[in-house]
Fold this protein.
Amino acid sequence: MEEGFFALYYTGVAGTGFGLFILSRGIITGVDVGGGTYDGDYRVDQAAGTLDGELKFNVPPGLPLVTGHPAQANSFTLSIPLKLPVNLGGEKPLTVQTPTGPVNVVVKKLRDLPA
């Protein structure tokens, strides 16, 4: 698993979206086209070939989710457990289970982190 800048393309039963995030030294941080933010942590389990962790998706007021969860008057945070292949799917679709329903994601590495 390489650290770097990544694009996240996703779909659910109620729509599509796009985000950008960074993986670096066990930390996840990013932004979503709808105004949400991503924060979290991860570790690589070499034996299992997985990236394990937790993503916190901070949802701003008024943003409906692609899972069909309606927009809320106040911001809230979804905690999403992660157990993904180390290659993050190799640019092929993966299904991520979230507290509000499944989301199909494609992750594409955009560039390495500067040295």
The chain has a mean pLDDT of 96. The CA atoms of residues 53 and 82 lie 5 Å apart. The beta strands are 4-12, 15-24, 27-32, 37-45, 50-59, 76-85, 94-98, 101-111. The two ends are 17 Å apart (CA to CA).
